[in-house]
Ribosome biogenesis protein ERB1
Amino acid sequence: MGAAGRSNQRKRSAAHRDEVAEEFPASSGIDVPSEPEASSDEDDNVEEGDFDATLRMMADDQGFGSDEAEDFAAQDSDEDAEDEDEEKSEIHSSDIDGASSEEDEEDEVEDEEESSVSDDDKNPLLVRAASRSTEGQETVVDSDEEAENSVLDGKDIDRLTINDFGRDLGSWKEYRKTLPQIDAGYASDSSTEEPVNTIGNVPIEWYADSLHIGYDIDGKRIMRPATGDELDKFLDNMDNPDVFRTARDEINQQNVKLSEEEIDIIRRIQGGSIPDADYNPYEDTVEWFTSQTMQTPLTAAQPSKRGFVPSKWEHNRVMKIVRAIRQGRITRGAPVSTAPQYFDLWADAEAEDSVGTGRRQRERLAAPRTVLPTHAESYHPPGEYLPTEEEKRKWLEQDPDYRKRNFLPHDFGTLRTVPGYDRFIQERFQRCLDLYLAPRMKKKVSHLDPEELMPKLPDPRDLRPFPSRESLVYLGHTGRVRSISVDPTGMWLLSGSDDGTVRLWELITGRCAKIWDFKDTVYRVAWCPSQDSCIFAAAVGSRVVIVIPSDLCDDNRLLVSEELVKAGFGSAAAAETDDDSSLPVSWDMPTSTEQASGMHVSIAMHRTVKSVTWHRRGDYLATLTSEEGGSSVLIHQISKHKSQRPFRKLKGAVQHIKFHPTRPWFLVTTQRYVRIYNLMQQSLIKTLQPGVKWISSVDVHPQGDNVIVGSYDKKLSWFDLDLSMKPYRSIRYHSQAIRQVQFSRKFPLFATASDDGTIQVYHGMVYQDLNQNPLVVPLKILRGHEIRNSLGVLDCQFHPIQPWLLSSGADGTIRLWM
């Protein structure tokens, strides 16, 4: 800077010192001493012209030490000396100043900026505030500045007040600019926030038809925010990454984003924990009152009078003991009595004597109390208690034991007109009987709701489909229809009857397609379960007839069926016999007339054939005859015309036989047991014990792990082969004997047919999870068959494809249920 610039700076500095500093307005409420007071204080302590002493006094007022004031005074004197030298040099350089006037104008702008900075530097408070705002930057402080800052070390630069700046309002404004900005956080009061709905507990549905949703704190309406349709909501949710932590505020009709603290509170509430994470439920107990009782407590209560007066009750007790001693009933050193102690054996153990003597206290029951009189027993009862003539007549006609009251209310008007009570003796006698015959022990009665004991079962309407109504009746048989069977395709139905005929029905229409007349009772008919062949077996009298209905088969199935049946006639296996030469079986070729009707093989036996069952492969056939012993059960191989006896001896009469649907097992049912044999290992696997008197039928679930057993004593037993030999569940809903039980091969259904003329359909779901028990639910009772000679429904079969059920009965009819 040139000499002219320094001269201008000196002039501006002197003018600045002569100007009056900007003062605070009077309305600000800041206590600043006036000029006369300040001058008076200076006059009292400082002589005129003593400028150094004046600086020291001002430093003391501003809170600085004496050393800093001396430095300020020395610095000011140096500046005055420099000003005098520059004024002398200014006279000799006037020409130069005139030539550089343009440069002076440019320097004035720079001088104003430097003067403002120099003025700020004069206040140490602004220096400390500026150094705080440039945090993290490297600064160099000289020795003088360190001295100035040491004075303010005792002050917190963030807590300075307006009084710390004295009369310098400009410095206070500059200091305010250096303060950090206020962060309008959660706890700040901001007028820009959305208005809060103040409707309280008023339901928001009341404002459904209005354009506003409530009122704010000033009573102004809060208009309903615009809402989009479901598509807009879906698109907003797809674009919003915080959709899973957003909750709906129904009062203010807006979505609120949950904070981490609120989510933590929700998780704690869901987990059953305390919502407050900082709460410690196991804090140490603070004993506000001591738990230790003082031995000699200090109290200001007056002592009781009874503490100074002898107790008469203690006197009576002592006199009683004295009289006992005088009478000899209490003696010192008397032997202890060893007499046996008797107690009530059937009393509760809780009633024992607390002393431990072993005696049990008998709990006394209060005598029954008499019934309190009512208004009807008054001599002058109200009018509503007086009976009418019709009520009097009904009361007289009733039996005395069934009357609600044993008297009729009567209005006597005055007490003097009341006669003597004629039933006084009878009522006193009845009261004596009540006291004499009152119970002397408490009877614990458990109050249970019968509905609570019932198992919680699903609604049958939720378990559809199942057969529920009669759809078709097949008429034609003249005797009992003992057996029916549906072919694997589900299109044809076979039926065998006591009239000696086997009829083939078209299942959908009920048309009888063909009749075979065997002139003997047909006990059982059964289709071959193989899909490749078209064969059925009929147990007629003492023989089993193998029939191929050629009219129903296509060429491929007919060829396979004929090869299977006729292969055994020319083979050497037909000539082989069983090791036991007494095997009562012979394979015969039917006559030409019988062959024309479709009969290809006849297996003759010595006794009546009761039952016929096929193996799942279709080549083996098991029969049950009426004779006892091991010869009653035989297994026949159709392709080789060979028969074998699997059992040499059997315990009890066999009632039913069945091949297992998935394993090489064979079920033999006797009168009380179901024995399961392994045909490959030739061993007994398990014996089921239904706990019934007489087993009538048995069936195996298609999955092979559950068995149902029906009996003539009206019981149905469900067995889980993986659990136990005892039934998992026993059901007794029929009123007569159960004739047949049957599982559906496709649906979770099973049915029971009984002599009471009904068929009961059940839902039997078997789960793949071994930890979950089967679900058995009664669904429907089907009624339609007539009871003939105490016989009702004799057989039932499920359709192999549809949830349909077919049944046959003693009335000679076959019915289709859908």
